[in-house]
Design brief:
Elements lengths: L13 H11 L9 E6 L14 E6 L5 H14 L7 H7 L2 E6 L5 H16 L3 E6 L2 H13 L1 H7 L5 E5 L6 H8 L3 E7 L30 H7 L3 E5 L1 H4 L3 H9 L4 E6 L8 E5 L1 H6 L5 E10 L7 E7 L5 E10 L2 E9 L5 H5 L9 E6 L4 E5 L5 E3 L9 H23 L7 E6 L6 E3 L5 E3 L1 H13 L8 H4 L11 E4 L1 E6 L7 E6 L10 H10 L1 H5 L7 E4 L12 E7 L8 H5 L21 E6 L3 H16 L5 E2 L8 E5 L2 E4 L2 H13 L3 E7 L4 E6 L1 H8 L13 H12 L11 E4 L3 H6 L1 H10 L1 E6 L4 H15 L6 E12 L2 E4 L5 E6 L10 H9 L3 H11 L2 H6 L1 H22 L2 E9 L3 H5 L2 E4 L4 E3 L7 E3 L3 H12 L3 E6 L17 E6 L5 E7 L11 H17 L4 E4 L3 H9 L1
Parallel strand pairs: 3-8, 3-9, 4-6, 4-7, 5-6, 7-8, 10-25, 17-23, 17-24, 20-23, 24-25, 42-43
Antiparallel strand pairs: 1-2, 10-33, 11-12, 12-13, 14-15, 15-16, 18-19, 21-22, 26-30, 27-28, 29-30, 31-37, 32-36, 33-34, 33-35, 38-39, 40-41, 41-42
Amino acid sequence: MANKMILKFERDLEYQSDAVNSICDIFEGEEIFQSNFSVAPTQDDAGRLFQSSTIGIGNSLKMIDEDMLANIQRIQLRNGLAQSTAASFKKEGMNFTVEMETGTGKTYVYLKTIFELNRRYGFTKFIIVVPTIAIKEGTKKSLEITKEHFKGEFENVVYDYFVYDSAKLEQVRSFATSDSIQIMVINIDAFRKSFVNDDENNKSNIIHRYNDKLGHKPMELIRETNPIVIIDEPQSVDNTDKAKEAIAALNPLCCLRYSATHRTAYNMMYKLDSVDAYELKLVKQIEVATAAVEGFQNDAYINLLKVDNKNGIRAQVEIDIQNKGKVDRKKKWVRKGEDLYDITKREQYEGYIVEDIWNDGENWLMSFTSNNTLVKQGVASGSLGEEMLKREQIRMTIESHLDKELILNPQGIKVLSLFFIDKVANYRMYDEEGNAIAGRYAKMFEEEYMKIIKRHRYQTLFNDLRDRNIDVSQVHNGYFSIDKKAKASNKKDKFEYYVDSSESRYAARDDDTFNLIMNKKEELLSFDSPLRFIFSHTALREGWDNPNVFQICTLNDTSTEIKKRQEIGRGLRLCVNQDGERVKGFDVNTLTVMANESYESFAKALQKEIEEDTGITFGLLHKYSFARIVVDVVNEEPVYLDEVQSENLYNHFVVKGYVKEEVVNKKTKEIAAKVQDKLKIDLRDNRVVIPEEYDYIKMPIVKVLKRISGNFMNIKNRDDARKVTFRKEFFIHNEGFKNLWDKIKYKTTYSVQVDSGTLIDRCANKVYEEVTTGKGRFVTRKIKLAITEGGVMGDENTPRESARIIDEDVSTLPDIVSYLQNETGLTRQSIIAILTKSKRLDAFKKNPQAFIESVIDIIRNEMRLMLVDGIKYQRIDNDVWCQELFENKELQGYLNSNLLESSKSPYDYVIYDSIVERDMAQRLEGSENVKVFAKLPSWFKIDTPLGAYNPDWALVWDDGEDQKLYFVVETKGGLFDDSIKLTERAKINCGKKHFAAIKTGIKFELADSFDRLQEEISS
């Protein structure tokens, strides 16, 4: 029996106290006062009436609106929020909004607010309205586990709480008549149906019907208490007119609205969004892990992405296309009758002629002629089986889990991992007698887990806290809805089995599922329980989280995805140790999400969801953004820069062009200002212009600007942009440049001779020495995300990468000879000779496509190098480079980035591509020996068998004795070591032969610096 952990709650977390006070201070100045009302006597089962009526006790408020609005505005100012106006307060009424990011203790905050409101003002009647069973069970659990905590915090205050049950209406009477704190938790569905006409009364919720025992309609008693209504997740509670009517029917003193994703923010009082939570480290940091397949493209890979029926049915598929000897995965639209071989040019796709594209009621499917392949939307066929990809996700999750256990177990922190699946049968099945059978994911998990825990690196995990020999079935389990079914052998004997709660007929069974999950919350956190890996269906998508979930893995058969925020919300809360205490810091609290996409795509989707759910638009400056800057302290109380001064700063930055105003919410017509590159550049260069009167708070102002600007370190300054202009007069009047151009302007043609025997030997030797083709790889990449006001982005300092061999045999081997012949142009005899002489066909069998691509590269490269060895250039007298090309090409660059002013060049600026070129340009410009020089433009190209070659510089050198020397200079770094590629060296050799062939006296020099150039000239 596992020991039950007691979760501990910190008493004075500043942000939680701020949230509580932001609501309680609304009523500052209110006196303690209760309202009384008469409650009719009850009737017992025998029909006898009690003789006297009972006094009901309700909340009461005496404050005038003007005083309350002043309180509201003061609170909003200190929290840096837009202030309510008399008009907006009149319109929005007694609705107050608190925004808190998932995992920061929203439920704890509103429960503490209840007790604080009672202590200050005597309010006793509170109703918590929730949208779902999940959140109802979570709230009930929170009330249970915080009971002792709040009694200690509030001097053993007397209070009662209950979850509304239409079968226990006596609880409603107690709620109305008790003089202690009363907390009712109720689902919106329990009182949303209300009808005025008696003939429809049987369709309304019981809470709206007259009850003989109560002598009232339950709702009438509730209304009289004038309750303070707390709406948990209002975007899902009062999101319809009927729901709004239902809330109003409670006759609330006020409505306190708590969520991370408000649809409408009525009188926003406190805001702790995802950016604040990340910066304050109040939630786990998110790490995205992705597994990419590299070096394995040997089968006919087909992924059906989507179907379009606008102009006849067509399907978008992802397939492997051969292009210039390489295979690239691309998206293509196809119709019935199209041959994938014609599109891909790969023999693996022979016979893949689209036969039909249809929908079976659930999924789009595609079939082909000449084979039995059936492709289902979202399930890739070929290359790597879908089973292997899922297995890799599971393996990654187990490995990440155990790696964290190595670090966290000694700190008393139990690690949990959560798998989301879309079909219960993928985890558990049953035979006709009710015997449980492991589904495919359970089998994969157990097989991979048993292999991984045997690794030497994990042996210490099992010494103290658990036994390695424990039955693997005990380390994982599923939380799903449960139903009953009759056994085949005896219809009266029934067994329980897991069901998909997404099916409407089983939706009601989620209630039992949530009870099970919530009741085991503390048990899951204890080392006494061996359960560490949790599989679930839709049941855990909302309303449940566990602070020690450190890995989340989504396993789907279809393209349906859980929303990113919904997914990560299950594990954002800071973890706890075995004493039930929160452990802080990103070094411990990292939530790893096993994603089916790149981290860039994940981050982009997460940012979009945050914007859609919360109304945040990243990179915006608001008129109130500076209002909360502290400018003074009086009697230990901070004095804030007010909203008027904040708007003055806002207007200053608009005028300076740092931000640009736009409508950011079409519904509310809200205007804010979007960050411009000018602000990012000036932040980078520490030159942001602040009005003089605000110099004393310049640092906090700049801090606000940096928060909204995101990554501004690599932004180019638009003010530094320059158009590079050709100086025509330079060409006309500068004799040195005219003479230089006359010497280098000639074009050439080349011819080659190749010895086939030598080529075969060289290629075979290279294949033998250099081709080390292994099997394909799963490459796992992890990177941590930063959530700032500028957006969601990867932390470039945190990427990690690991690779693992794909242990899968290749089903068919392609015709390698034909393949190589088509790509290289060599004869079949030459190809066969190269392959047999190389003695490396064993590598071909391991990974055919990778081997073929490597051999193609070697043959092409050796052919080019041999062509260079036997190349001869000849000048073409009637074909020259025209000077007009200088004028026709428009160029642009950036000062301090890739431009250098020049007086010796035909352009007013020299564009350089590297530090080596920049240093050379500076020395050429400053040297008295150099009379004129030019960075040869990109269109000045010499043809070679390896592609076009563009030399770097042309110059005129004066040796001081009136002798003019004309040079073309190559200045690439690494010219004099082994770091330069052979192909680049071969191109340079072609360049030498070209300039020798034009016979104009031009010299071709290699120099990786100006000093080396001087040495070559002087020698």
